[in-house]
């Protein structure tokens, strides 16, 4: 079974995270940031990853450390659960519309972090979550999961729709990339 449990404690956050890559997309989330919990719920559902996250962060400062550190813990868990990556599809892509918005996410679990983010958000916050931390979350995912992550909002007006489309598209791309398709390592180099 492809599972992981991550406990990450710093002076800024205390995170307990468990995940199952071969789940059904159920989630239990308590980060203290309502909109972020909503986005993680969407990611879990669309990726099919069972996700349980509790985070006690320094929200009296702001939500930056909570959002970034949950991204680091989630990516660490995904990478740990993938193990040697033998048999995975490796690549994933998804277009997700959300009303007037269209987002595209393309990933590669290559073992090399690369992050491209072409997203224009107009508002400072969605709910209580700083919109600048959306990029920080995804950058943490790319770096810690050692994956190529290309994200783009092709068009749209509503920032809630843009962010939600990105989380859903990432979930669907991850679902495609982590799917077991055979028993080989998906690399001509022989290592990922």
Structure description:
- The longest helix has 20 residues, at 159-178.
- Helix 2 packs parallel to helix 3 (132-145).
- Helices cover 35% and strands 31% of the residues.
- The strands form three sheets. A four-stranded mixed beta sheet has the order 1-2-4-3, covered by helices on one side. It has a four-stranded mixed beta sheet with strand order 5-6-10-7, with helices on one face. It has a two-stranded antiparallel sheet with strand order 8-9.
- The protein is an alpha+beta fold and 192 residues long.
- The radius of gyration is 16 Å and the shape is globular.
Any descriptors?
single chain, 192 residues, alpha+beta, 4-stranded mixed beta sheet, 4 helices, 10 strands, globular
Give the % helix: 25-40%
Distance between the termini: 20 Å
Query: Main beta sheet: strand number and arrangement?
Result: 4 strands, mixed
Radius of gyration: 16 Å
Q: Structural class given helices, strands, pairing?
A: alpha+beta
How are strands sequenced across the largest beta sheet? 1-2-4-3
The arrangement of helices and strands along the chain is EEEHEHEEEEEHEH
